[in-house]
From TrEMBL:
This is Ribosomal RNA-processing protein 7 C-terminal domain-containing protein. It comes from the Eukaryota. Residues 169-279 form the Ribosomal RNA-processing protein 7 C-terminal domain. Belongs to the RRP7 family. GO terms for cellular component: CURI complex; UTP-C complex. Pfam families: RRM_Rrp7, RRP7. It comes from Tuber aestivum. Coiled coil: none annotated.
Length: 290
C-alpha cells in the first residue's frame, strides 16, 4: 500500500500490524509532528504529537517502535481519552494510561480508532532524533510490537481478553469472601474506635466542666455477678416451659416454695411475740416487760 498524501508538518511512519486468527497483516500509517499546544506544558519541547495511533497502543509499544527505528528514549505516552472498550463517552480529555476509567474489569485499554497521543521523550534531542529516524524509514514498514521483551507481560487480545473481562466482572466466591472479610475487618475496627471515643467523652469533662451526655449507656452487665446471673437465667429459660407438664410442675414448685416461706415467716412472728410477752418478775413479785 502506498503512503497517503503528505500533510504539512507531519512525518508519516508506516507500520505493519501483525496477522491475527481472523485477519491477515495490514499496513497502518502513523503521523508525527512536534507537539505545540495552546496551553504549554513543561514537557512540550520534548514531545511529539501522534495521530492515528493503533487501537492496541501502549507505552511499551511506542518505546519498542522508536527503539526499532533508532529514535530516542520515550519517557511516557499520554493517550487521548474518550473511547474504546474500557473508556466512557463524552468530552475528550487527555489522561495518562494509568488514569483511564474502567480499569477494574478490563486487563488493558483499547484506543479509539484514529485517536491521538502525546509521546514524551526524556529530552529534546531524543525527540529530534525520533523525527529524523521516522523520516528515513518512511518507505519501509516496521512491524508493530516487534522488539517487545517477553519479560513484559502485555495481556492478549481476542477471546482471551473477553474471558478475562468476564472473570473480573464475576469474581469467584473465594475472592468475594476475602473482599467481604477485609471490608468487615475495617468496618469493625472503625466501629471500635468510634465506641472508644464515645466512652472517653462520657468520662472526660469539657472545658466548662460538664460531661457530655450521649445517647446509649451501658448495654451489658458491668459486674461479674450480674453477668453470671444473666447467663444462668438465660440457660434456664432456654428449655423451660417447652412442654405443658413442665409449666404445671413449675407452678406447683412455686406454690410449695411460697407455702414454705409463709410457714417460716409465721414461725418467726410467733417467736418474736413469745419474747415480748409479760413475764413474772422474781423478788418483789412485780411484772415487767422484756
Amino acid at each position: 500500500m502506498s503512503p497517503p498524501a503528505q500533510i504539512a508538518s507531519y512525518t508519516i511512519l508506516p507500520i505493519t500490524i501483525p496477522a491475527t486468527p481472523l485477519a491477515g497483516t495490514a499496513t497502518h500509517f502513523l503521523y508525527f509532528r512536534k507537539h505545540s499546544a495552546k496551553q504549554l506544558a513543561p514537557h512540550d519541547p520534548r514531545s511529539l504529537f501522534a495521530v492515528n495511533v493503533p487501537i492496541d497502543s501502549t507505552t511499551t509499544h511506542f518505546r519498542a517502535l522508536f527503539t526499532k527505528i533508532g529514535g530516542g528514549r520515550v519517557e511516557r505516552v499520554i493517550f487521548e481519552e474518550g473511547g474504546g472498550a474500557r473508556c466512557g463517552h463524552g468530552k475528550r480529555k487527555r489522561a495518562s494510561e494509568d488514569e483511564e476509567v474502567g480499569g477494574d474489569v478490563w486487563d488493558r485499554p483499547l484506543r479509539k480508532s484514529g485517536s491521538t497521543a502525546v509521546v514524551v521523550f526524556v529530552d529534546k534531542p531524543s525527540r529530534d532524533m525520533a523525527i529524523k529516524a521516522a523520516g528515513k524509514v518512511s518507505t519501509t514498514a516496521v512491524v508493530w510490537g516487534d522488539g517487545i521483551s517477553e519479560v513484559i507481560n502485555i495481556p492478549a487480545l481476542g477471546i482471551s481478553r473477553y474471558l478475562t473481562h468476564h472473570n473480573l466482572t464475576h469474581p469467584s466466591k473465594v475472592h468475594l469472601q476475602a473482599s467481604v472479610n477485609t471490608f468487615m475487618a475495617v468496618f469493625e475496627g472503625e466501629e471500635r474506635a468510634r465506641l472508644r471515643a464515645l466512652a472517653k467523652r462520657r468520662q472526660v469533662p469539657d472545658e466548662d466542666g460538664f460531661i457530655t451526655v450521649l445517647r446509649g449507656g451501658r448495654t451489658a452487665p458491668a459486674r461479674q455477678e450480674e453477668v453470671k446471673a444473666a447467663l444462668e437465667k438465660k440457660r434456664k429459660d432456654k428449655h423451660e416451659g417447652f412442654y405443658r407438664f413442665q409449666v404445671r410442675e413449675g407452678r406447683k414448685n412455686q406454690q410449695i416454695e411460697l407455702l414454705r416461706k409463709f410457714e417460716e415467716d409465721k414461725r418467726r412472728v410467733a417467736e418474736r411475740k413469745q419474747l415480748r410477752r409479760f413475764k413474772a418478775g422474781s423478788g418483789s413479785g412485780g411484772a415487767r416487760i422484756v
